[in-house]
Design brief:
Blueprint lengths: L1 E5 L2 E4 L4 E8 L8 E6 L6 E6 L5 E3 L7 E6 L4 E6 L8 E8 L7 E4 L3 E6 L1
């Protein structure tokens, strides 16, 4: 299993950014996927999940601003982040679940840094 995140960067407050996670080494379409984020000194936080059937779920802190999606043809999961705030600054990780619905992470990517400047 390999998960490779990309698309992170620096964006101004109120701006938008889309990060991607390219998956390989497993049958992508049969597993739920998720995005987590982490800042120094804090626990990793679940941001959004998407089932194998593309049903999304979001943390309250990002609901209405972030959109998770998946493309089973390219084995990629995306996180579209709009109206970004300084508190969204974090290292964002892609994770694969252990089932078609989200229960827990079984594999992690290496992370991509998102920095929101105020």
């Amino acid at each position: 299993v390999q998960l490779v995140e990309s698309g992170g960067g620096i964006v101004q407050s109120g701006g938008s950014l889309r990060i991607s996670c390219a998956a390989s080494g497993f049958t992508f379409g049969t597993f739920a996927m998720a995005w987590y984020r982490q800042t120094p000194g804090k626990e990793r936080e679940l941001v959004a999940t998407i089932t194998s059937g593309a049903r999304p779920s979001y943390a309250d802190s990002v609901k209405g601003r972030f959109t998770i999606s998946r493309d089973d043809f390219s084995n990629t999961v995306y996180l579209q982040m709009d109206n970004l705030k300084a508190e969204d600054t974090a290292l964002y990780y892609c994770a694969r679940g252990d089932n078609y619905y989200w229960l827990r992470p079984s594999h992690w990517g290496q992370g991509t840094q998102v920095t929101v400047s105020s």
